[in-house]
């Protein structure tokens, strides 16, 4: 009798537990998404009808597959490539307008391509709008809880810690390091040209520029040269490749805990990257204790902050905190600037008239004192054509492809109410080519549109977002722009560029806008010696 009663109680508990799980699952996969879609639908926003459980994933995969099976011509440089990166965004925009909703499983997304609404998002400073939380899990092996994906007070603190190190008054002191690294790379280019036939080298330049950018960020932020940190960058690049499937952006790869071949590779790379970076941190801590640190850089500043921090930020005292911040800087600090420089030189090779105009401006401003003059910031302010070329190039080929936000509470966006839990997406290449904002020549390379600054270049300047927007604007923007000016000024003063007959134009998404087959150029040495 008593055993029967116990069995009955256990059965009741199991039944209640199963019912609770069932109700929870129903809420997550059906009731909550349905409520969110209903709120958005009542505001007149439409989108592709979702299927149960999978949302629009099947349709997205079908559209993406059709683009793979019908590739565009990679031999010529055209703007068709923009339709091959997330093609469903473009197709749905044509069908449902510049603002529409779609689903990936239980996640509800709002695609926004109206410049006026992007302006509203730029002005939204509240922590109620942040990076999608599920992306933190997806990209955790590469970025951890670093500033790129962090939210709330964790993000606020990291920004306060990092941003001052990239203010212009500190960044300008890094010009000498940028010059030294660039000159070293140019000497290797000169040697290749000497060894080539006819004094013209056919070279893929993007890997050299990545190595250069890695050298600069290592020396500037961590006090080590690329030769010491090359393993870190190589491992990060491999980890980036492993995580850069477009499906990962929308939470379609939710089985990272399974020991599949790709997951085991990601785990191995993460462990190796963490170990290498932690060694850099530990070595610096030992140097600090001995008092042998030559000068204060970003890493040293972080270590000193850990000593003086209070209990409000206990993570600051952990190895994990240092590793995550360093991984974010290693990834964003070298990859984005190197890719920007590569695309800029590709565009200048396509437009030799602008290449000559920029080169003439550098000669006029700097004369024969190019290297010494760069110690004075006035020289950079006078290089207006170079700045116009940089701004126009990162409009057309900026390394960032997607902006993503999550509403952590109900927010207002223009005349809409965006419910809590909705993910807001924008495709940057599409925003930067919108004829309503940029004019009928939006697809053309026309640096003169920036002759009077960003505010006069388009109707809605807030829709120009190569470095992100709002409070999440990239803190390393000053560093990146200064590095581009130094590197491009030195390179263009010593070499001329033309597009190689072997160049294949195929920009692809690998977390950033990457040349699938490299940027291949014909490089000729100009008269004069390297400094």
Describe this structure in words.
Belongs to the cytochrome P450 family. GO terms for molecular function: heme binding; iron ion binding; monooxygenase activity; oxidoreductase activity, acting on paired donors, with incorporation or reduction of molecular oxygen. The chain crosses the membrane at residues 6-31. The structure is a single chain. It contains 22 helices and 12 strands. The chain is of the alpha+beta class and 531 residues long. The chain has a single domain, classed as Cytochrome P450 (Cytochrome p450, Orthogonal Bundle), CATH 1.10.630.10. The strands form 4 sheets. A 5-stranded mixed beta sheet has the order 1-2-8-5-3, sandwiched between helices. Strands 4-12-9 form a 3-stranded antiparallel beta sheet. Helix 12 crosses helix 14 (319-350). The termini are far apart. The model has no long low-confidence stretch (mean pLDDT 85).
Q: Remind me, CATH topology?
A: Cytochrome p450
Overall pLDDT metric: 85
CATH class: Mainly Alpha
Provide the structure class. Answer: alpha+beta
Shape: globular
Structure annotation, total helices: 22
Strand content: 5-15%
Low-confidence stretches: none
Major sheet characteristics = 5 strands, mixed
Work out the radius of gyration.
25 Å
Number of strands: 12
Number of self-contained structural domains: 1
Q: Order of strands side by side in the largest beta sheet? A: 1-2-8-5-3
The helix content, as a percent range, equals 55-70%
**Through-space gap between termini:** 96 Å
């Amino acid at each position: 009798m008593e055993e029967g009663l116990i069995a009955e109680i256990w059965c009741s508990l199991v039944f209640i537990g199963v019912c609770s799980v069932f109700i929870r699952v129903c809420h997550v996969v059906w009731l909550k998404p349905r409520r969110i879609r209903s709120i958005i639908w009542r505001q007149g926003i439409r989108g592709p009808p979702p299927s149960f459980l999978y949302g629009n994933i099947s349709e997205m995969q079908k559209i993406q597959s059709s683009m793979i099976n019908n590739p565009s011509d990679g031999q010529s440089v055209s703007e068709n490539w923009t339709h091959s990166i997330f093609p469903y965004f473009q197709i749905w925009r044509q069908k449902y307008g510049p603002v529409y909703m779609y689903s990936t499983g239980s996640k509800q997304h709002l695609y926004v391509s109206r410049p006026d609404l992007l302006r509203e998002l730029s002005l939204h400073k509240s922590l109620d709008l942040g990076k999608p939380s599920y992306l933190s899990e997806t990209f955790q092996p590469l970025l951890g809880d670093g500033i790129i994906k962090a939210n709330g007070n964790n993000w606020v603190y990291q920004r306060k810690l990092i941003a001052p190190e990239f203010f212009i008054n500190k960044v300008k002191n890094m010009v000498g390091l940028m010059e030294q690294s660039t000159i070293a790379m140019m000497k290797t280019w000169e040697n290749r040209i000497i060894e080539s036939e006819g004094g013209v080298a056919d070279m893929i330049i993007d890997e050299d520029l990545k190595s250069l950018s890695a050298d600069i960020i290592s020396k500037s932020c961590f006090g080590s040269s690329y030769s010491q940190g090359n393993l870190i960058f190589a491992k990060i690049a491999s980890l980036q490749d492993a995580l850069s499937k477009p499906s990962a952006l929308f939470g379609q790869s939710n089985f990272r805990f399974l020991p599949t071949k790709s997951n085991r590779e990601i785990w191995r790379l993460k462990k190796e990257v963490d170990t290498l970076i932690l060694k850099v941190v530990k070595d610096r801590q030992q140097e600090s204790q001995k008092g042998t640190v030559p000068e204060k850089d970003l890493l040293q500043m972080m270590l000193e902050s850990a000593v003086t921090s209070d209990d409000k930020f206990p993570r600051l005292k952990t190895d994990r905190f240092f590793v995550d911040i360093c991984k974010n800087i290693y990834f964003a600090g070298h990859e984005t600037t190197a890719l920007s420089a590569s695309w800029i030189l590709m565009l200048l090779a396509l437009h030799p008239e602008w290449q000559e105009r920029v080169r003439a401006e550098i000669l006029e401003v700097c004369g024969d004192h190019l290297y010494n003059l760069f110690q004075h910031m006035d020289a950079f302010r006078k290089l207006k054509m170079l700045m116009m070329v940089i701004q126009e190039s990162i409009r057309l080929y900026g390394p960032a492809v997607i902006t993503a936000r999550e509403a952590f509470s109900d927010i207002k966006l223009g005349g809409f109410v965006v419910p809590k839990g909705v993910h807001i997406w924008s495709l940057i290449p599409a925003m930067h080519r919108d004829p309503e904002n940029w004019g009928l020549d939006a697809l053309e390379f026309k640096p003169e549109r920036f002759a009077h600054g960003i505010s006069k270049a388009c109707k809605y300047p807030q829709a120009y977002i190569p470095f992100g927007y709002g409070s999440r604007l990239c803190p390393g923007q000053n560093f990146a722009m200064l590095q581009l000016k130094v590197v491009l000024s030195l390179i263009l003063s010593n070499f001329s560029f033309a597009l190689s007959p072997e160049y294949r134009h195929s920009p692809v998404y690998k977390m950033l806008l990457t040349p699938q087959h490299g940027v291949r150029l014909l490089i000729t040495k100009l008269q004069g010696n390297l400094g």
